[in-house]
Amino acid sequence: MAGNALIMYETSTDGVTLRAALAGELDLDDADQVRDNLAAAAQASTYQFLQIDVSNVTLIDSYALGALVSVRNAAAAAGVVVSLTNPSPPVLKAIQVTGLSEVFGLPPMNLMSEG
């Protein structure tokens, strides 16, 4: 089944933050395109921060999570700090299971989960 990931960009008024919002299913079918698009945006921008809102991501697989790590690394090489914001339950679970909270600027697992 083909994924249906969608990226929307918004510039911030602070002049240092580029915001991107991902929506839909982020899986093997979309991961390379999403990775390339976000990495290119980070590398071509004059912004210092790339915030990726993942509140509307309904599915994320390990390949797509790896693609987001690649975006983070490519952006870091360009001097841009990447963070994920508003993780949806599927994204939050994937990040918790893989231990990538700090990589994406999220609180450690024990601070994000209840009980």
UniProtKB/TrEMBL annotation:
Domain of life: Bacteria
InterPro entries hit by this protein: MlaB_ABC_Transporter (IPR052746), STAS_dom (IPR002645), STAS_dom_sf (IPR036513)
Domain STAS: 22-115
UniProt cross-references to SUPFAM superfamilies, sorted A to Z: SpoIIaa-like
Protein name: Stage II sporulation protein AA (Anti-sigma F factor antagonist)
